[in-house]
Specification:
elongated, 7-stranded parallel beta sheet, alpha/beta, 5-stranded parallel beta sheet, 11 helices
């Protein structure tokens, strides 16, 4: 088989290639150390592949139609909505993902966001460098705050544990209720209207796109903050920006948008009051990149042995 790595995966090239070649055995491995997302290049790189590895760029029907040998896609990412899954199923192309590698990394950033929003770290840094004081920058503590988690998969569950450690009262909304210590499950409207901090951790699909709508945001308390490290389209960006600019809610932090960075400077959330924005980096810690590479290799090894794992 010909296995094609379509892009770098965040660890040194030589380490990645060695890991994948060990997993692939006698099979051919081709590695591209540049990320290219245009259809023409993806077709050129993938056309002779039996298996491809990619992270979070669009892998469309148009590309796959030009890949007659393609049997397996390893998505080096948790989400896989950027792959045309309908066509993959139609063709019988197996698809695996790498869920779990970024659980700790994403949860870490959630609390980086929350603490910054509450304690005004960025603003304090600017003020002290310009001869200012703490006046107007004193914020609340996390202890005792009602922390709402939307989606209690691996990341949401870890966020719940950390929130408990901070002394928060943790609430959750999820399709499947789990037995999580010190977590009160409730309906979405109650969570939106009750919680001081709301953090989104659901996958993007037809049910969750637009889930945090203008109507849901309108339920939030005036001093509440919203964190989105899941997927951009889950939250109505225009409605969120309006709520921030109108003082309807106190703040927000977003790591995800409708498209991958670079983001249009005119995007409403980049121009909204008290909104922290980062370029889809929550998943990308040093340790997470190595964890991801290891899962990619296990996925490849398992597929070649006829027992594929992490199928989606």
């Amino acid at each position: 088989m010909k296995i094609v790595l379509l892009e770098p995966l965040g660890i040194p090239d030589e380490v990645l290639v060695e890991k994948v070649r060990e997993a692939a055995g006698d099979n051919e491995v081709i590695y591209y150390n540049t990320r290219r997302e245009d259809t023409e290049t993806l077709i050129e790189r993938s056309r002779d592949a039996d298996a491809v590895v990619l992270s979070n760029f669009k892998f469309s029907r148009e590309v796959m139609e030009k890949c007659p040998h393609l049997k397996y896609i390893c998505v080096a990412f948790t989400g896989y909505d950027h792959v045309d899954m309908d066509y993959a199923r139609e063709r019988g192309i197996a698809v695996s993902n790498c869920a779990g590698y970024s659980t700790s990394a994403v949860a870490d950033l959630v609390f980086g966001f929350v603490i910054d929003l509450y304690r005004n770290i960025i603003k304090c840094n600017d003020v002290v460098r310009n001869g200012g004081t703490k006046a107007g920058l004193i914020g609340p503590e996390l202890e005792g705050k009602k922390f709402g988690i939307i989606g209690t998969g691996a990341i949401g569950s870890r966020v719940a544990r950390i929130a408990n450690a901070f002394g928060c009262k943790v609430y959750a909304y999820s399709r499947t209720r789990k037995n999580l210590p010190d977590v009160t499950f409730t309906d979405l409207d109650t969570l939106m209207s009750t919680c001081d901090i709301i953090s989104v951790h659901v996958p993007q699909n037809s049910e969750t796109t637009g889930m945090i709508s203008k109507e849901k945001i309108a339920l939030m308390k005036n001093d509440a903050v919203l964190i989105n490290t899941a997927r951009g389209p889950i939250v109505d960006s225009i409605a969120l920006a309006e709520a921030l600019n109108n003082g309807k809610i106190a703040g927000a932090a977003v790591d995800v948008f409708e498209t991958e960075p670079p983001i249009d400077p005119e995007h409403p959330l980049l121009n909204a009051r008290n909104c922290i924005a980062t370029p889809h980096i929550a998943f990308a810690s040093v340790q997470a990149m190595y964890k991801r590479a290891d899962i990619v290799c296990e996925n490849i090894r398992a597929y070649l042995e006829g027992n594929p794992v992490n199928l989606v």
